[in-house]
Design goal:
About 40% of the residues lie in helices and about 20% in strands. It has a six-stranded mixed sheet with strand order 1-2-3-4-6-5, sandwiched between helices. A hairpin with a 2-residue loop joins β1 and β2. The longest helix is centred in the last third of the chain and has 36 residues. The termini are far apart.
Length: about 230
């Protein structure tokens, strides 16, 4: 569970940096405690894969990493930022490495992607140290005080699936790697449908079976009068 006060302290200490490329954090130095509480409450409620994680050392929050949807359901996107008090210490690189490992090993995602503004040199270095590579670029609305709106998509592929998926698939916008996954999903849905049909049959038999096995189906009373 996140600590609201620790989140506020981190944001107050990093207000000059957080708003550089994060649009929501441009005025984070003016946030009151209720704003931090609302932000944390919204992220704590996230379920499934798309959650937020805090990094702590003793009573200090070092940074945050959030998971969000990627290009398709086989991947996941990571967004990260750390406290200015602990910048240039490799913390963000380490946190990203841990979250990539979680995505690959625990969640079995095929790839992880990062969306980084071309002006955000610090985040690009974190991506490079974690062996991400640029596969695409696009333009969007500017985010943050220094955001250019020109974004790069960085991708790292799960080694477990390197034979099925390559960086060139992303660079060429080739989605054929999705075919086996859709086929597996189709098979899974078919199996689920068959299980549901079987469950319906069993459920229709249960009332008869219950009446035959019920200890109260006999006309003789099993109770004795005290």
């Amino acid at each position: 569970m996140y600590d609201v006060l620790k989140h506020k302290r981190m944001c107050d200490a990093s207000k000059a940096d957080l708003g550089k490329f994060l649009g929501f954090a441009e005025d984070i130095g003016k946030w009151e405690m209720k704003h931090h509480l609302k932000w944390i409450a919204r992220h704590v409620k996230l379920q499934g894969y798309y959650q937020a994680f805090g990094a702590f050392y003793k009573d200090q929050m070092l940074g945050l990493i959030t998971f969000s949807p990627a290009k398709d359901f086989l991947g996941i996107q990571i967004c990260y930022y750390t406290s200015s008090l602990y910048s240039s210490r490799g913390i963000c690189t380490m946190l990203t490495e841990l979250m990539v490992s979680r995505a690959f090993i625990m969640e079995n995602f095929r790839y992880v992607e990062l969306h980084i503004d071309i002006e955000n040199i610090g985040s690009q270095r974190v991506a490079e140290k974690n062996e991400f590579q640029v596969v695409a670029d696009y333009e969007c609305s500017k985010s943050g005080r220094l955001g250019s709106g020109k974004m790069q998509v960085w991708v790292k592929i799960n080694p477990k699936y390197s034979a099925e998926l390559s960086l060139e698939d992303f660079r060429n916008n080739d989605d054929s790697y999705l075919a086996p996954a859709y086929q597996s999903l189709s098979s899974a849905f078919y199996a689920l449908k068959e299980l549901q049909n079987l469950a319906s049959i069993v459920q229709s038999l249960n009332p008869l079976e219950a009446s035959l096995n019920s200890p109260y189906s006999s006309s003789e009373s099993t109770f004795t009068k005290g």
